[in-house]
Amino acid sequence: MTDRIEAAAAELRPLLQEFLLWVPVHAPESDPDLVGSAALWHRLSQRSDVGHWRRDDLRPLMLDRLPQVVEDPDAAADAMVPSLRSYLTFLDETGRLTPASDRLELLLNELDALEDDFVDRMEDAIGETEWDEEDDGEEDEGLGDFEPFADELAELPTLRLRPDAELAADARRVPLIAAARDLSVWIGTDRKVGESTLLTDAEVEEAVTALGLSGPQKLWNLWNLAIDLEFVTPSGEDTVSIDSDTAAWPFDDDEDVLDAWMLGLGSIDYGDPELDDDDLTLALSGLTRETLIRVLLSGGQKALDELREELSEAVRDYDDLGDAAWEAAGDPLAPVLDWLTGYGMAEVDGQTVRLTSLGTEGVVHLVDEADLDIDARPAIDAMTAHDLLSLSADMSEEEADAEFAAWMRLREPAQAAEELLGAAVEDESDALVRVQAASLVGQLGEVAIPAWKKALAEESLRSYAATHLTQLEVEGAPEPTQADTHWLILDMWTISAGLGRAEFVSSLEDIGPATDLISLLDVIWKVRHPHLDELLEAIAEAHPDRNVGKAAKRALFKARSGG
Asked: Which portions of this protein are annotated as coiled-coil regions (predicted)?
């Protein structure tokens, strides 16, 4: 990116930040990222004044320039025109549209007239992109992209995540969130923001002094973090205010704390070094994410010297200016580690950097957002019975057995039985968890008898409890009834239905000939199973025998009408 582009981007940044605050109230359907691209190229190719818009500017911008530069043509086809309408309306309502501009009505009419042609250009671009992808099969990656590490991430040993209570306790101590709260308190209620800069020079100096910051750049990073955290929200067309809950940080509720911390996770990009030269700054963009992924792949900790060597090589590989940028930054890792430690994601011990529990949680979240595979599970000592049952469904039999054995080592068998059956009744509609719980508790033998007896009172578990108590020859145990057997069948059908049509039909055929299934359908509708209606609908649709389909429809009618 040239100096001219970066200069224009810097000129637009305060205006776009104010637009970002204006959008949630006035045009929540807008995409500010798309607006940023359009505003930048309008400034570069049409007008020297960012507020000067003429109707004649729009055709070359929309049909010539933007099709060459938009990164996501599909998103642009859907949202560019309505987003740009919102931006021009914002300029007009806030007095930024210069007197030399065309009237807003004319500008909006011209946008509407160009929309079909613009969408056609985007569809052409989508087709070219698909052709290019078929041609080379690869996308260009940059510093901080996780895709090049996909295979290594998938091969990592299981990552163990700490419980929410511990993570929330750590998040409450995050210095940067506290600083963002303090800035928000300083901002206060209905603070006016400026046209060219959000704050005046005097306000910047006042804020830096009041908060004890090292300089204006740290202030703007905190300002953006406060917005990310939703500590600061727009309160008018040109005013921002502290959110009513912000001053209460750190919040009492663990879930609220973690929700806030996750909102600010994208702030890691503010750790990237910022240099006087914009091209050199761009060469180091993504360094913080690159640091996180490399530390994670090294087992969660890495020697700083080794990390610096790897990162400098990566910067060199990704950008022709990498060497110059690395040298100009002095110690490029300093701002990266400053932000990561400030956000509670990393800690530096001598010459080693390691991820904290929050850091591991955050990186796993970022990997998930990138739609890459990673094996992350709760730590065994933090794993609930429901966690165990839910996760086991996606494991091999050997993995599930090992996980169960490790979980069992931390509790008495009778306690384990109580926890597992308790988890099975948390959601009556989850047949898979229920079947897995019954299977695991069944392995515990007589020690689980008290838990089975207690489970008799639970409608969703009664059939399992009666069956196992009878098998254990417990005196006075109720014999399983026909309704119990039917409940077990419905649970198995529910699970097989989730595996696909072929699996579902196969499970129906396990009952026997069509006449046997029809006989079953004539009585099974009486069972109050949470998935009864949808299972009967699925049988009517999927079973190849028309007579079975008719029987399923009759059963469905009886179930809905009460017989």
From this structure: 297-324
